[in-house]
Design brief:
338 residues, alpha+beta, Ubiquitin-like (UB roll), Creatine Kinase, Chain A, domain 2, 2 domains, five-stranded mixed beta sheet, 9 helices, binds adenosine-5'-diphosphate, binds manganese (II) ion
Amino acid sequence: MDKYVLEYLWLDGYTPVPNIRGKSQVKEYKSFPTLEQLPKWGFDGSSTKQAEGKSSDCVLKPVAVFPDSSRRNGVIVLCEVMMPDGETPHPSNSRATILDDENTWFGFEQEYFLFQDGRPLGFPQDGYPAPQGPYYCGVGYKAVGDIARSIVNEHLDLCLDAGINHEGINAEVAKGQWEFQIFGKGSKKCADQIWVARYLLERLCEKYGIDVEYRCKPIKGDWNGSGMHANFSTEHLREKGGKEYFDALMAKFGENVEEHIAVYGPDNHLRLTGLHETQSIDKFSHGVADRGASIRVPHSFKNADYKGYLEDRRPNSQGDPYQIASRILKTISEVPIS
Ligand code: ADP
Ligand code: MN
Ligand code: MN
Ligand code: MN
C-alpha cells in the first residue's frame, strides 16, 4: 500500500462567479485510485456561501480524477457539491444539471491576465506600458517580461501530466495577457478540464506571488479584454453540415442572444463593445474569418461546404464552461436535423 494525497476540489457558492476551493486528505491505495475508489467527503458550507451555520454540512461527490505531478502520489479529485443526503445536487452545482453530449466537441480558448501588485504583469507602477501591438505572440523581455513564460510553460506541463487536453498557448494582445486552449469531447469533459486547468494555474502562481485575473475587462481604455471563445462541433456539423442547416442554426442563435449572454460571464458589456475584436453585446452577427462577429466561421468550414466547427466569440474569461457549453447545446437542439 502507498499513501496518496487526494486534493478534493469544488466550486463554492459565490455569485456571479464561483471560486475554486480545495482541501486534501491522505489515503492508502495499492495503486493510483480510480474514481470508484474515491469516497464522498464533506465540508463546512457556511464558509463558502453554500449553507447556514446551524446546518453547515455539504457533501463532496467525486466526478473526475487527475494525476497531480507537482507532488509524489498526488491526486486531484474534482467534485460536485451535494446536499447533506449526498444525492441531491446543491443549488450552486451547475455541473449536475447541464446538457451533455459526448458527440459534441468543445474547444475553449481561456484568456486571462497575470497580475502583480494589483496591475498586469509588466505594467509600470504608475501609468501604462507602450500601447498594444508588440505583445500578441510576442517574444523577448520587452514583450513578455521575465517570469510569465516560465509560468505558462510549467502550467502546460502540469496540465499534460494531469491528462488534460491542453492544446496550446499564446501571449495575447494586451501586456500581461495570455491564453491557453483546452479541447474535449462532450461538454462535461471539456468543462471539467477547464476548471482543473484554472485551478492548476492559480495554484502554480501562488509561489510566484502572482494572481490570475479572470475578469473580462480588468484594464479600461485601449486594452483588450479577456474572452473564452467557445469552439464547437456536433456530429451533424462535422459530417453533414450544409448551408441550409448553417443558416437555420445561426437564425436560432440570433433568436436567443439574451439567453446566451446570461451565461457567458459577468460584466460582458464592458468587453463586447464592437471594438477590440468583438461584436457589441446587443447585436448578433456571423462571418467568415470575422473577428468582429459574434460567431466566427472558419475558412475551413465554408470551404468544406459548411462542415466543421464554429467559434462563438462572446463567452468571457470568467464564464462557467458548464453553463456555456450547455446553452450552446440547448440552442443546437432546437434546430431540426433534416
Ligand atoms: P483562434 O485564436 O484563431 O480563434 P485557436 O487555435 O486559439 O484559434 O483555438 C481554436 C480552438 O478550436 C481550439 O481550442 C481547438 O481545440 C478548437 N477546435 C478545433 N477543431 C474543433 C472541432 N472540430 N470541434 C470543436 N472545437 C474544435
Ligand atoms: Mn486563440
Ligand atoms: Mn485569443
Ligand atoms: Mn478564438
